[in-house]
């Protein structure tokens, strides 16, 4: 058996009913795609069918997927469910009928779906004269003129006699020239079939819309929210260890019954589980494109066809086109013929897993016709980001920092990486790799770029700089008000920075994004992001932290006026003796008001100038540090120390020596073992200790 290589390509048929699509697929592949009894009985394709086409390649046979779609207008829903991931359209036009209504509708659908390549087959070659063949060819050339399919090849064939079939295969092979596939996206497999295989369990099939998956991986089923494990994979009737975007796949899964997973479901990357919430999947901002002469009323209810799912939705149009030129869209009287592009929103009746860049089709159920389609701009994961504001930049070809600027609207401070990843349809690891040390994207908010990574968030550098400036100003004001304080509690700074937002209403911001944007900006600043900003400022040397207190880097606590006199008197009291302890009664006994003396004394304790040894007992910070140095030096020199030895070293009473040792125990400087103290981390009971070679059992 020759070596066969699967290629990441899907061929989809298109054309009017009874133009010979299924017969042509059978002639090309040898596979009959009509699998239902009713299809065989009536000679009419009702549902999508699947086959594969083996083509000649330099390294051996190449195998591509073929999806055969029904041509009857009654089965357009089934036809659309088979269009996922089509790379090349095989348009079928019968020589006797020529171009018919479903030819035109299928052609419009392929254009709206962004399919760029096509091959046209004029079937029933054996039933028409040469002049008729030329007439149909000219009609096709007229149809494709000025479209993405202009220049496509046209091949007359007969599925009965085989005339032109081998030439058609060569043309298909040429049109399917290998193209790069982006497998770095989120894995999504729109399901078109589900069944159970004895001994294996649930098997689902579909065309991989994005990303890739391997055996053993886990996936979530949308919209069920249930998780499944991949037990096995097949692609085009061949075993596979991995399937990628653009490939047909049969996936054997465990964890979900085949009866619970049907056409319209999507097997997806677990990272997309957030979309299982209906609130996150009912509102989608899109660029719309409408077919010529389509009459669309604002707030009309249309059917959205996306992947293998179809859902009713209300369409709301925003005044303007994707390029930004203004046109009078959204009137209730209908749309003019030249207004074919618009920006707007879909309000879905049921959840759909629609990500940025996905294409979809719109049909009007009232007239049973395709009226347009579109491309997803943003899914509805964030009310702040989905503010129904017409984007400045087009979707296609934008750089990541341009997309971020468009999404952030220049107003928000930050958004967590996961949310941005889902909104932009870029996997989190890929998104993080895009941030370099230079350019518009950076790992730290250095001020040179436009966006930066801050902890678990992506932040606007301009907004972060403004936030840092506000924090500095707030600290400066608080230091001026309380100069004796060593620092300010973080929650106090946080409340001060957010204070302006208390008088601002979100509805006002939604009506006009230019009004109160700074207030809305800080209103979104969470505690976690605020702390991340403080960490950056500390790293940059702008501020310093002492416990839960924060201060400007150059702030030195100082008392003024009477407070300075009280501070001097207190320090004189502590400096009157070496290792002397003082009580609060002595502090209150100074020649000042007791409450003033207690307040200034509290400042000194916060600053560490005075240390609380135990309740009611205080020593100067300098004396405590001196005692600690003597204690550590003795233990390192001679080993574990007794309270009596420490008493003699300091020249104080036994009671105070024990109180100081107990303070060091609480501060985890020392560890008590019976009557002895050892330094933490130098436990002699663990064998050899570093005490001058002394061995202790």
**Regions with pLDDT < 50 over 5+ consecutive residues?**
320-338, 501-520, 683-697
Can you name the CATH architecture of the largest domain? 3-Layer(aba) Sandwich
Bin the helical content. 25-40%
- State Rg: 37 Å
| CA-based shape | elongated
| CATH classification, class level of the largest domain | Alpha Beta
Main sheet overview: 8 strands, antiparallel
Describe it.
The protein is elongated, with a radius of gyration of 37 Å. Helix content is 30%, strand content 27%. It has five domains: 4-175, P-loop containing nucleotide triphosphate hydrolases (Rossmann fold); 188-275, Translation factors (Elongation Factor Tu (Ef-tu), domain 3); 277-379, Elongation Factor Tu (Ef-tu), domain 3 (Beta Barrel), CATH 2.40.30; 398-558, Arc Repressor Mutant, subunit A (Orthogonal Bundle); 559-697, Orthogonal Bundle (Arc Repressor Mutant, subunit A). With 697 residues, the protein is α+β, with helices and mostly antiparallel strands. The longest helix has 21 residues, at 461-481. Strand 12 and strand 13 (238-239) form a beta hairpin. The strands form eight sheets. Strands 7, 8, 9, 11, 12, 13, 15 and 16 form an eight-stranded antiparallel beta sheet that branches.
